[in-house]
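DM between two lab members

TW: hey, do you still have the Acetone carboxylase entry open?
JB: yeah, one sec
JB: this one, 72 aa:
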Amino acid sequence: MSDETPICSAKGCRAEAVWVLAWNNPKIHTPERRKTWLACEEHREHLSQFLGVRGFLKDVVLLKEWESAREA
Ligand SMILES: [Zn+2]
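TW: and the structure you got?
JB:
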């Protein structure tokens, strides 16, 4: 196991992350700010719902695409 392997943010999950959930809490973050959670295939929906019901979720992108977008 390498430290470079991104791991799912769900509690107790050690699976490799596939998705990036970008979110923003308007009460504490400026509108452009993006916090990120990582999610495996299994937890993407669960974590998306958690953020979605609070109105925090902005974007769900594949980790590969997120990283390539950052490098660009
Ligand atoms: Zn997971």
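TW: got it. The pocket of zinc ion is lined by residues 8, 10, 13, 15, 40, 42-43 (CB under 6 Å). The chain has a mean pLDDT of 94.
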